[in-house]
Design brief:
By secondary structure, the chain is an alpha/beta fold. The chain contains 18 helices and 22 strands. It has helices spanning about 5-25, 45-50, 60-65, 80-90, 95, 140-145, 160-170, 195-205, 220-225, 245-250, 255-270, 300-325, 360-375, 395-400, 405-415, 425-430, 440-445, 505-510; strands at about 35-40, 65-75, 105, 110-115, 125, 155, 175-180, 185-190, 215, 240, 280-290, 330-335, 355-360, 380-385, 390, 420-425, 455, 460-465, 470-475, 480-485, 495, 500. Strands 1, 2, 5, 6, 7, 8, 11, 12, 20, 21 and 22 form an eleven-stranded mixed sheet that branches. Strands 14-15-17-16 form a four-stranded antiparallel sheet. The longest helix has 26 residues, at about 300-325. It is globular, with a radius of gyration of 26 Å.
Length: about 525
């Protein structure tokens, strides 16, 4: 055999060795549809406590058939709905994606702005001008749009504007929320025209046409007879109607809003081709699991129990409806929480628990007086929002005052005030991001919109702001919430190791065989 024949034989063998295992393997299926279910304020303890009241199609099915991460958490401190959803969809923290909260301060006007406000775009069925432009990175839905050359269908449905827009991302086909004034589903021309099917729904089936007939009372007799909370014994039944000027807002702060979300989501599925072709589509829905009208648990314990029972029903209804349309093994469900809860503002004094009021408005005035004594007359502290103080950086620059020195002096001064546990300056957060305990605070900070000084109030103390009428009870209590994956290529498993929510986006990206969002630096689960 000559050298040329040997070469041909060797090449043939290499091709055969290379091709055989590829032909023998079958790539796992990619889901036709991802249904991303975000539950505002879902808590593991409540979900488990009310389990005797559940059916078999909701939480029980997720626990039995899904991959369950029982201890999920956010990679930054003090999440709210907006910052949580932005992180969930982008796989990045507020430091990268820019959504530090639902509202923050515009330093040029010293006015608070909403995280999705945008005067460049007009509201559809609403006066709210809205876009996702403040979200500084891509989301998993954006990457799906890019990878399919815009062919994937992406819709987001939520009771609230911030949740709808931030979970839709930049490139979605539609983001819908309930108008606080009219009860109709509305949107923004940032995503194009309002679809005809949504207009038809508003004309025939919207909340506006049904609100006067809606009454919220326990879904069954078991709810009122079940007692999880230790305070006050068995409570009387409840019955709430929605009739005053706040009727739509009140309904959005109770269990009944989840019915509206399901109604509209099912209409969206029926009137579009979501999940019916080989190109993966993406639907995000947001449910509510918080307290009625954001009251304390002691004021509405039976309402909270009923909220979880109704939530379990809506979960089961939506999952069953989607699977009937798309196919049971062709859908990937992702279910998790926004990871925060309304805190009850209790009076701890009668129980001799250390407590008090820290008035940040007065702290702002005191700090400014101190800086006047050091640097001369001037308005050195411009304003406060939440637990943050904003310095007049332009004044410091014009007077040639060293900003780092002012921050250090301010930190030392504020640490002496009663009720202050710690003080973090922007400089300390940026330089100490690798320090244990500081990384979560740094992740919650964004240089573009956050304050220059962050004050941590001692647990049990109230943060009072006279200008905004805020009264926030400081707590460090751990609040666990779950993360579920169910559907295509998912094997049932219970994982108790803590897991960070920013891993969801790269995990879904891996299932869809697309890139993770561009601000995401963590790997898939």
């Amino acid at each position: 055999m000559n050298n040329q024949s040997k070469y041909r034989l060797l090449a043939s063998l290499l091709v055969l060795m290379t091709m055989t295992p590829i032909e023998a393997q079958t790539a796992p299926d990619v889901p036709r549809l991802v249904v991303n279910i975000i539950i505002d304020q879902l808590r593991t303890d409540y979900m488990e406590a009310f389990s005797p009241l559940y059916g078999d199609r909701g939480f029980r099915r997720l626990l039995a058939e899904g991959k369950v991460y029982s201890n999920a958490e956010y990679p930054f401190s003090s999440p709210d709905r907006a910052s949580a959803i932005a992180t969930l969809m982008s796989g990045a923290s507020p430091y990268e994606h820019g959504i530090v909260a639902e509202r923050w301060l515009d330093r040029t006007t010293l006015q608070t702005v909403h995280c999705v406000d945008d005067k460049a775009y007009h509201g559809l069925i609403t006066g709210e001008q809205t876009s996702a432009a403040q979200l500084a990175v891509s989301t998993i839905t954006d990457e799906l749009k890019v990878s399919t050359e815009g062919k994937a269908l992406v819709y987001s449905i939520a009771p609230y504007r911030d949740a709808a827009v931030l979970s839709a991302g930049h490139a979605a086909d539609g983001a819908f929320w309930i108008n606080d004034l009219t009860g109709q589903w509305c949107s923004t021309d940032y995503y194009g025209q309002f679809p005809q099917w949504a207009l038809a729904y508003n004309n025939s089936s919207s909340l506006k046409n049904r609100i006067s007939s809606i009454t919220w009372e326990p879904v069954n007799s078991l709810v009122g007879g079940f007692n999880y909370f230790v305070s006050g014994g068995i409570r009387s039944q409840f019955k709430h109607s929605f009739s005053d000027d706040r009727k739509y807002r009140d309904l959005k702060e109770c269990a009944m809003v989840n019915d509206e979300v399901n109604r509209f989501a099912e209409t969206c599925m029926k009137c579009t081709s979501m999940g019916l072709d080989a190109i993966t589509d993406f639907l995000t829905v947001t449910y509510y699991a918080g307290n009625y009208k954001h009251k304390g648990v002691d004021e509405c314990p039976i309402e909270l129990q009923d909220t979880y029972v109704r939530l379990d029903e809506k979960l089961g209804e939506l999952m069953s409806f989607v699977e009937q349309k798309v196919g049971k093994n062709k859908v990937l469900f992702v279910v998790t929480s926004t990871g925060y809860a309304d805190e009850q503002s209790s009076n701890l004094e009668p129980y001799r628990i250390p407590t008090g009021n820290f008035n940040i408005t007065r702290a702002q005035l005191l700090l400014n007086m101190y800086l006047i004594a050091v640097y001369g007359q001037g308005q050195y502290v411009e304003t406060s929002l939440g637990n943050q103080l904003y310095l007049n950086l332009k004044l410091l620059e014009n007077r040639g005052i060293n900003q780092a020195e002012v921050l250090e002096r301010s930190q030392d001064f504020l640490l002496q005030l009663s009720g202050v546990r710690d003080v973090y300056t922007s400089q300390r957060l940026l330089l100490g991001s690798g320090t244990p305990g500081v990384s979560k605070l740094r992740n919650s900070y964004n240089p573009r919109v956050s304050g220059d000084i962050m004050i941590l109030v001692a647990p049990g103390w109230h943060l009072i702001n006279e200008n905004t009428h805020e009264d926030i009870l400081a707590r460090e209590s751990y609040m666990g919430f779950p993360l579920f994956f169910l559907g295509t290529n998912i094997k049932s498993e219970l994982i108790q190791t803590p897991v960070s929510i920013d891993h969801i986006a790269p995990t879904v990206a891996q299932h869809l065989r697309i890139r993770a969002p561009n601000g995401c630096s963590v790997g898939p689960l």
